[in-house]
Amino acid sequence: MISAALAPVFVLLLGNLAQPLWFMNGYAAQQANRPEWAFWDATRIVPGTVNEFPFFTFLFADLHAHMIVMPLSLALLGLGVAIVRRPRASATFGWFNTLSLIAMIGLLVGALRATNTWDYPTFVGLTAIAFAIAAWNAFRREASPSARVGIVVGMLLLPFAASLILGNLLFAPFTQHFTTASSGIELLHDGARESRIAQLLGAERTTLWDELRLYGLWLVIVIAGGLVLIKHVIGLEFRIQDSARRSGNESLLTIVALGGSLAVLVLIGLWREWSALVLLLPLLVSGTWLCWNLRNYPPPLLLPAVWGTAAIGLLVLVEIVVVTGDVGRMNTVFKFGLHSWILFALMGAVAVPWLMQRALSRLRFGLQFQPTNGAYGALVLLLALLRGGPQHVYPLTATPARLADRWNPAAPRSLDGAAFMATISSATGGPEHALDEDAAAIDWLQRNVPGTPIILEAHRPSYQWAGRIATYTGLPTLLGWEWHQIQQREVVNARPAIANRQNAIQTIYSTPDPQAALDLIHDYGIEYVYVGGAERAAYDTTGLSKFTVLVTSGALEEAFSQGQTQIFRVTEPGVPGVLTSDILIEAPTRETPPATDARHPGKRVARQSVITPGIAGRATRRCWQACSGWRCSMALHCWACRWRLRSLATGAMVVGPGRVSSACLCSATSSGCLPHSACGPTIAGVCSLAG
Question: What's phi and psi for 293, nearest 5 deg?
Answer without folding.
Answer: -75, -15
